[in-house]
Amino acid sequence: MRNLISLVVFIFIFGCSPKKETYPVLNESVSGLYDSALAPFYHGVASGDPLSDRVVIWTRVTPPDSLPKISVTWEISTDKEFASIVKSDTLSTTPARDYTVKVDVTGLNPDRYYYYRFKALNATSPTGRTKTTPTGTRDSLVFAVVSCSNWEWGYFNAYASIADKNVDAVLHLGDYIYEYGVGRYGDTTIGRFNLPPYEIVSLQDYRTRHSLYRLDAGLRAMSAAHPLIAIWDDHEVANNTYKSGAQNHQPDKEGDFFARRDAARKAYYEWIPIRESDKHYRSFAFGQLASLIMLDERLEGRDEPPATPEEAQQQRSMLGEEQLQWLQDNLKTNAQWKVIGNQVIFSDLDLRAVYPKMPRNLDSWDGYLTEKEQIKNFILTNKIKDIVFVTGDTHAAWGIEVATDVSKTYNPKTSAGAFAVEFGATSVTSANDNEYKSTDTVKMMEKVMLANNPHIKYLNDRDHGYLLLTLKPDKAKAEYYFMETLRQPDKRERLEKTLEVSRGSTKLN
Ligand SMILES: [Fe+2]
């Protein structure tokens, strides 16, 4: 009897004929938004962190069921028909990296377009286009500059429009995703609801949120058209993050901050097409014309923000000693333009007349005055010119002459006393003030801000979109584009403002 039972058990477990391996069904809560025509590449393709000889290419393969491993072949070519493939290889992805694929393709030529695609599960991905950076001289460079893209506030139409523009790279200055649950920060009448529906904390939560965002058709189009250079701001983890905590992190509810930060960072690197490193801050040379310095103002060295303007005078770090030294070393470059990718606004802003309860934005550089002073002094002592800050975070568009001391030494007519310019990109979708107040009230607030801050030459706190930064050997130009609507996919836009600065000057015209 025992032998017979053993035989039955043996047959039951191992079967009499070769049996197909099965796996549990993959739990993809965003699958209702998948476009079946793209299977299994629902999230499209992307590229990023271009250098003169390499670029990162990215995709995500979504299997119908869980698989322990998926074999993926990638190809990169100088033509879109893939008649001249310059490199190709096969690798595998696994659930350990959420089935994302990232390849740092080396051995490329400078200043060239490349086309790339992936093959997996008997399908071929859409074709992406990317571009390496130049090494010598260039007549011009164009960057699209974006920040603050929130799913529930609307469609990423700015991204869709950028896909059609001729740019060298897209600079994303942070708040690529937001951490909130449904309806907590957004306009639910638009019909875009966060997944997961609650505030994200775990690794799976952050992965799902990234996956959701990448299903926006505008984001997919921009990703397939241009390389991305992204830095995180706070919402990639939680609101007002600093190196050891966040305003929107309560340990009694959400557990250990560092565990949450590590989960957010892992998902970010899985889903964003940039090079992975211990250090998020990094620089990019665009030949002689520009050096791009991307700062990490959140996780690297930021101390907790001050609670009062008086406390902002105390020694407090935004970058941390090592990154500050690195920034100073990088500012000594011979490049004609020094572009600083900056999350929070660098210029001094007097907010007293519009926000009496918040006379200074203490989460911005105005809360970190000693370190800001150090950077100003370094630039002045070393007579470094042609610095352009590009800034995100505020959900408003700005053009500012960065003054050493607005009230004492700055001349708003000549721009004497200014040492750099700062261009702030408005949000892709996140609310600015007229989502909460009437447009007339916000226009009045803008006027009051301009009157009290003569170094601000342009401010728009009502619209959403992006800016195009064009660099030429003799001048830099910022063009502020705003979208007609966020309520449905729609690429209509208007160019509202253009500001220019000549090399050697800080005067905005
Ligand atoms: Fe934001």
Q: If you had to describe this structure to a student in words, what would you say it looks like?
A:
By secondary structure, the protein is α+β, with helices and mostly antiparallel strands. The chain has two domains: 31-131, Sandwich (Immunoglobulin-like); 141-502, 4-Layer Sandwich (Purple Acid Phosphatase, chain A, domain 2), CATH 3.60.21. The protein is 19% helix and 26% strand. It has nine helices and 23 strands. The protein has helices at 2-14, 157-164, 203-213, 217-225, 251-254, 257-271, 321-331, 369-381, 439-452; strands at residues 45-48, 55-60, 70-77, 85-93, 100-105, 113-120, 123-124, 128-131, 141-146, 169-172, 227-230, 241-242, 245-246, 282-286, 290-294, 337-342, 387-391, 397-403, 418-424, 456-460, 465-471, 475-483, 493-502. The strands form four sheets. A nine-stranded mixed sheet has the order 5-2-1-11-10-9-21-22-23. Helix 2 (157-164) runs parallel beside helix 4 and helix 3 runs parallel beside helix 6. The protein is globular. It starts with a helix and ends in a 7-residue tail after the last strand. Residues 1-18 have low confidence and may be disordered.
